Amino acid sequence: MKNFFYDVAVNRPLPQLFTYESSKAIQIGSRVKILFGKKELLGIVLRKSSQPEFQTNLILDVLDDQALFSRHQLELIQWAADYYKHPKGEAVHNFIPPYLKKLGNTFPKTITESVHYSITKSNLSLTKEQKTAIANIQNITGFNTHVLQGVTGSGKTEVYLEAIESILKKKQSVLVLVPEISLVPQTLGRFKDRFGDICYAYHSGMTPKARMQVWEEAAIEAPKIIIGTRSSILLPLKNPGLFIVDEEHDKSYKQHEGFRFSARDLLIKRAQMLDIPIVLGSATPSLQTLRSINEGRYTVSHLRERVQAGTIPKFSIIDTNLQALESGLSQQALVEIEKVLEQKQQALIFLNRRGYAPKFLCASCGWVAQCSSCESNLVFHHIEKRMICHRCDSRFAVPKHCPSCQEPSLIMSGQGTEKIEQFLQSRFVNSSIIRVDRDTTRKVGALENLIEEINTHSSSILIGTRMLTKGHHFPNLALVVIVNLDQSLISLDPFALEDLGQQIIQVAGRAGREKTAAKVLLQSGFPDHPILAVLKNGKYEDFATMVLKEREENKLPPFSFQAILRCHSRSIKKNIDALNKLANVNLSGIELFGPVPASVAKKGGNYFHQIILQSSSRKNLSKNLELILKKIQADKRSVKWVLDIDPVEY
Ligand SMILES: [Zn+2]
Ligand SMILES: [Zn+2]
Predict the structure, then answer these.
(1) CA of 325 to the centre of ligand 1 (A)
(2) Angle 311-314-319 (CA atoms, 0-180°, nearest 5)?
(3) What ligand is nearest to the CA atom of residue 371?
(4) Ligand 1 centre and the CA of 375: distance in Å?
(5) Which residues lie across from 412 on neighbouring strands?
(6) What is the whole-number distance in angstroms between the Cα of residue 357 and the centre of ligand 1?
(7) Burial profile 605-622: b = 16 or more Cβ within 10 angstroms, e = fewer
(8) Nearest ligand, CA of residue 405?
(9) How far is CA 572 from the centre of its chain?
(10) How many angstroms does the Cα of residue 370 sit away from the middle of ligand 2?
(11) Distance of alpha carbon 104 from alpha carbon 224, whole angstroms
(12) Residue 131 DSSP class
């Protein structure tokens, strides 16, 4: 009897596939049970193999009577593993729905009732720009990356909905990516209002069973609309017709652990493989996307006007060198907040720092409270009465005396959202103050409740971090105060500046979205910084043009290609030695920066160091990385390695 041989992907950080034997034919993409060493593991059959020269183990069991992955899905995963130079087995396992990661679970047989879509038209009339954008998208045949660049409030979603409608009529399905789980409910709600029960959510906050059900529903019948986060890019859609990536600039699309892929970039690749259009929407497109437009690789539609007559907010810069601040707020800011409250409107204080005070130190000897495993400064949290490490979440009791010199001279400096909240509460006693940050939104549904509260308190002060700037509409918001933007302004990480510009424009976009003309105050100790001068006009395009020019002059991405090679161990010396050894590999056409400590220099007792590799040619970067990876694999492992291709932060 003839036996069959298969290459199987195993969830191990090893570059190769493993050949197994079976007495029966197995569909490519199937889940199988195999013996790996002495352990029974889940494997995915990736391809047929010829009989190897060495003795092979038998595949113990084929777990389902249908393949989990189609050839198209496997092709995409393998492309991604090659591109990001990540072990194939781990890359494949990253995309297995959690329910089927358990050996004991099998493909559930859900019998679904056919649902048909219904269309409930909105009674909003479309602007001329919206109509043009819709026509542009509808006219795309085959693969094309189309950017929908629209200022906040310009009605991007309405464009998506209209474009989707014509896809549904062709009985094709649509996948819509949003950057965060918290944005799924509102998007899903809006889509359901329009198209009824063919709309589904898919994200890691759902139970494995619920996700499995959506996985199957999507595969069985078209048309379907899936609203998902980055874990949904590989969903087995039957007859897909359109992909949409909303807020395409958002860094959350990059996976920051394990298999470091960009969900946006992979979905573009998938659209190309399927030969269907993909739409990237944003008020503040990434510089990478803008360059692709400039080079003619992507097409673009602009929405420059807001749907409702609301005007673009007025920006002003407040020089913080010239005045004493009260809990980080300038006198002008306080005067403006008061005005806004008198007019029964809302003010938003934006700062990306939660907790009470970001620094806890001794005034007599200079001791600074630091996390014992990360060495990052501990943030004092007034409500919890603890010092908390924002990197590893370790909590420490607050000392009464300096642990170093025993003096009772401990002080706090800087301000976080808690401190600003406390100060504003004492200053505007009768106003409602709503704080939105990770600490106030830990519980399921907490963010939705706070957003609801914001919308019912038409006159209030909102204090928030980045999470408040994403996708929420505050029609009564008349003032935005941006506190402590200086750190990003002077950061050595070029991506920090891009991020800052996007955040300022995004947060400003929350304001004055209906009839109110809003003000945006930028508090800075560098009031003459050229970046602030362009941001002051409130036009993202001007900001982006300026930063792109700088990047081009410095040959930084998107005018070159980068990879970060990061290692960690318990010893700084081991890290530096390991990185220096790699610097000696014969590299050509590569610029090398480092070794330097990573931005997270220590975590969980491990030190992190890195080198940045850069080349004007992606091919060349890739070729050299392969040399380096070979060298790493050949060496005895004294440190652990992580490779980040196309990094979005240093
Ligand atoms: Zn001291
Ligand atoms: Zn820590």
Answers:
(1) 26
(2) 170
(3) 2
(4) 18
(5) 360
(6) 18
(7) ebbbbbbbbbbeeeeebb
(8) 1
(9) 30
(10) 8
(11) 29
(12) H
From ligand 1's centre to the CA of 172, what distance in Å? Answer: 67
The string of pLDDT tens digits covering residues 534-545 is 998 888 999 999
Of 65, 46, 193, 37, the closest CA to residue 120 belongs to 193
Distance CA 148, CA 277 (A): 13
Mean pLDDT calculated for residue range 11-28: 93
- 356-365 residue pLDDT tens: 998 899 999 9
Q: How far is CA 161 from CA 214, 294, 374, 612, in A?
A: 21, 27, 46, 41
Q: What distance in angstroms lies between residue 412's CA and the mean position of ligand 1's atoms? A: 13
- What is the residue type of 590? I
Over the stretch 285-294, which tens digit does the pLDDT of each residue have? 999 999 999 9
Distance 380 CA to ligand 2 centre (A): 13
Provide the whole-model pTM.
Answer: 0.92
DSSP state letter for 221: S
pLDDT, tens digit, 9 for 90 and up, residues 472-529: 778 889 999 999 888 888 888 888 899 999 999 998 888 865 566 789 999 999 999 9
The owner of tokens 């000696």 is: 584
Element housing 610 (H / E): strand 606-615
Q: To the nearest 10°, the Cα dihedral for 18, 24, 29, 33?
A: -60
Which residues have CB less than 5 Å away from ligand 2 (the ion)?
371, 373-374, 389, 391-392, 394
Q: What domains does the chain contain, in order, with CATH numbers?
A: 4-101 (3.40.1440.60), 128-303 (3.40.50.300), 314-356+415-551 (3.40.50.300), 561-645 (3.30.70.600)
